[in-house]
Amino acid sequence: MSASFSYGRQEKLKSRAALELLFAKGRTLSVFPVKVFYLAKPADRGTVQAGVGVGARYFKKATERNRIKRLLRENYRLHKEALSALAVAKGLEVTVFLLYIDKTMPEKDILPQKMPLVIQKLVQQLHEMATANP
RNA sequence: UCCAGCGCCCGAACCAUCGCUUCCCGGAAACGGGGGGAGGAAAGUCCGGACAGUGCAGGGCAACCCACCGGUUAACGACCGGCACCCCAUUCGGGGGAGAGAUAGUGCCACAGAAAAUAACUACUUCGUUUCGGCGGAGCAAAGGUGAAAAUGUGAGGUAAGAGCUCACGGCUUGUACUGGUAACAGGGCAGGCGGGUAAACCUUGGGUACUGUAAUGCCAUGUAUAGGAAUCUUUGAAUGCGGCCCGCAUGAUCCCGGUUCCGAUCGGGAAGGUUCCAGGGUAGGCAGCUAGAUCCCGGCAGUAAUGACGGGGCCAGAUAAAUGAUGGUAUUGGAACAGAAUCCGGCUUAUGAGGCGUUGGUUUAU
RNA sequence: GGUCAUGUGGCCGAGUGGUGAGGCACAGGUCUGCAAAACCUUAUACGGCGGUUCGACCCCGUCCAUGACCU
Q1: A105-118 as b/e, with b when 16 or more CB fall inside 10 Å?
Q2: What's the pLDDT tens digit per position in A6-49?
Q3: Is the C-beta of residue A53 closer than 7 Å to nucleic acid chain B?
Q4: Per the domain annotation, does A13 fall within a domain?
């Protein structure tokens, strides 16, 4: 069970080309203060790769951007179970990017409250896509 | 005591659980065990280096940087000590600055003022003339409400009136020898001079400087096309190199056909070699560079100090969408400052909570 | 990561070290039955700090902000 909370190198979105494809072709959903870019395609083995980001426009200091990215990663790590379960079940290769879109530093409780909603909404939309286009 | 300002020191402890990254060990792998894991500023990029690539006969020019003296350093515009100057206290002392040259030259100095640098408006003296108001010539640089700044100050002599014109005592300054000091410089002596400021204005003097930056650069893998179009130059001189420019030197395609002509020069066309532009194609993976070093800690020694050498001990991030976080508890009440390495070092500058040390101030001791 | 440039009223923009132009906008007035246009009149600025200078938008240093370029 402990493995399900890990967030290792294979689960991170690293390829520059994959990122460009995601931003160009991917779909989006938004649960304030997080905007999600996601893309899914059928594959032999179900995998999920995720990345996080913050715009440097509103957060000029590197420490603030690091802080937000760490919080996003931490909360994604604790709540990603449903998403990876779906990917394995449906045989999908899913790429996800979580972008923080608020202009101020997050309150302490906002991300732990919102992240389950993000995952839930994402799983729901992926499920609809997978059933619509089998 | 407290509050406020300034300077320096310090820089978020410990335990458990869930996670991240790197190295080592075991393992076929999954994974398991163990060790390491941001800063004093990692920041700004204001200076200086290391390292790498390009590249390096010679001469001249330009551009840029530095500027009291001595020392420290790999180097510096940094640091330490001193000297002179300025400011505050005017007793001790404290503080400040990019501190060569203004008799090498040029420029500028608004307004005001006669005048802003060898000039003469008023005034003063004198001569001539006169319609008795003045006018003209000469002399002089003492006096003149200004201004940021006005031609060395005071006194005496001197003179037609005056003036460093002369003298005495001062002030500033140049040269020279002496004494002290490594030196800058200081002291008094001798001889001479006394025409502002500005060089963070141009400049002069002395000294110095290649440029580009680790996304440099090297290797491996993959892919591909010495492809195409336009303009233009050259083929006995297009272009390239000599660090930005010039001289000079070196290298340098070094052909073909036709018209004209005795030949060459010259004209037209082709071919070749460059330059610029257009349009298009490919790669965006890996390894090295990449962290053991002008290194860190401790100790006494040398030195006023910056710093140095010596002895002992330690290994202390190396990522590549980029690693340090979350939750609970303990301490001490809370979620505490500024803030995140990206090749690495030495400085400078700026930001910074609580606590500690020092210092300054506080109308009515302000808590 | 590296290399540069620029900061002047609300906006756009000139400005050889000596009282900072001009245009648009805003406000007030004239005109009009009321407006528009036109005309007249104001008010509003040198990014911050320090230095050089008698004197700084200008020269120098430093900090801040904005923008561009290289890869």
Answers
A1: ebeeeebeebbeeb
A2: 887 778 876 767 777 777 777 888 888 888 888 887 777 778 88
A3: yes
A4: no
pLDDT at residue A1, as a whole number: 30
pTM: 0.78
Domain that holds residue A109: 27-129
User: Is this prediction's ipTM beyond 0.85?
Assistant: no
pLDDT at A10: 78
Distance measured from the CA of protein residue A104 to the C1' of nucleotide C7, in angstroms: 28
Cα–Cα distance, A38 to A94 (Å, whole number) = 7
What type of residue is A132?
A
Report the number of distinct structural domains present in chain A. 1
- Distance measured from the CA of protein residue A80 to the C1' of nucleotide B78, in angstroms: 55
Q: Write the CATH number for A95.
A: 3.30.230
- Return d(Cα A111, Cα A114) in angstroms, integer: 5
Whether CB of A54 is under 7 Å from strand B: the answer is no
